[in-house]
Amino acid sequence: MSYATRNMSLWVLAWPIFLEMLLQFALGAADTLMVSRISDDAVAVVGIANQLFNAVNILFMSIANGAGILIAQKLGAGRLDEARTTGMISLKVCTAIGFAVSVLLVAGAGPITRMLQMPEELWPLGETYIATVGGGMTFLAIMSALSAVVRNTGNTRSPMMVGVGINVLHVLMNYVVIYGALGVPQLGLQGVAWSTTISRIIGALLLLYMFRHAFSVRYELRDLRLFDRGLFRETVKLSWPLGVHMSCWCFTQLVLFAMVASLGAAELSARTYMNTLESFCFTIGSAIATAGQIRIAHLYGAGQWKLAYKDSYRVLWIGLAFVQANALLLYGFGGPVLGLFTSDSNIVSIGVSLLALNLLLQPSKMLNMALNSALTGVGDTRSIMWVGIPSMWAVSVGLSFALGFGAGWGLAGIYTAMIVDECVRGFLLLLRWRFHRKRLTGEQPPQPDLQPRTAAYTI
């Protein structure tokens, strides 16, 4: 099915994204459980190394997401050639950066292991894991670029199928190399590292096939030469604020976890378990917001500005309904569920005390995600960055320290600061979105470069 005839309804876009995120979460938990069967040291190495890999992946995702927004807008405006060229630019840039990162991680695995402050007894495991998984970061970069291109044409099912497929394959290969099934010797953490890399190679190849057929005009080898400086500048203009914002969020989360850890082992365990439970609320909200972003970007590019503006509130209210319903379920059944994770009554008690605060945290997150996606869909990524940086550091981190330690509220104080941060960012982004209202609803003429060249399709 081509992008021109694809159903662009919010539900059709959202459910594959939600299913992909949910299954990836479940399979990720299974992956961690299997690695724990090797040793606690193996889990520690994977946990620390993945912080590095996640930070690197932010770079790939920023470029890919910036290109994805531009592709959706160009398709909405009927500019197929520009959309195809942007897709190829994204692929080439991500591949080049991914290759450079892979070389750096393989060549510098030893120094990087020590830089990450791993205990000396973990250095051999750390070097092996970082070199093997890091050597395959090129394929992760390619997957990020290809997934973003395909998803922003409105085809959210294909990336879902590939994402779920390679995660299932990864878990199966882990079982083989960890337990020595099918006559394969037990390879321990090195086998898990190779399992990760091989699954990404297969994922990249599958997405490459889908990428070739993403547009009505199929990519050919000669299209590798496609490049346009203007489109490259547009992509960078959208991407770099997203990268700064995502990096800032990543670092503030590390600081918050360090604060929680300083409160004690019980608080850290409770926060970790709550983070797992909260992800069920967060996942569906994130899927709806992502689908809304794709739809709004298409509408915006097609010149249907008024509908794009109204759609943002539709995304917000639908997301709030689902997220709040899940938060209420978690509030009602969270205690018994926490008891499945641990028998420590102190940890369960701390977790239960946070369930009421979660009723405020999750809708606050949804407000932030919905407005974030709306502004991203129309290309206003700088506002998200300028709002996010001061709020995340001053409110989330600063207020967490003040309430958690200064006022003696502990973990509840950190949760309260997180709620305030989400509300502050969501409210400021709402003001910024309303600032766009006159232009998007026709009360003020749009800028000339926003005018679609042709009527693309009906959404």
Automatic annotation (TrEMBL):
Localization (cell): Cell membrane
CDD domains assigned to the protein according to its UniProt record, in alphabetical order: MATE_like_8 (cd13134)
Chief localization: membrane
Pfam families: MatE (PF01554)
Record keyword Transmembrane present: yes
Alphabetically ordered keywords of this record: Cell membrane, Membrane, Transmembrane, Transmembrane helix, Transport
Transmembrane spans: 52-72, 93-116, 128-150, 162-181, 242-266, 272-294, 315-333, 345-362, 383-403, 409-431
Membrane disposition: Multi-pass membrane protein
Keyword Transmembrane: yes
Full protein name: MATE family efflux transporter
Organism annotation: Paenibacillus thermoaerophilus
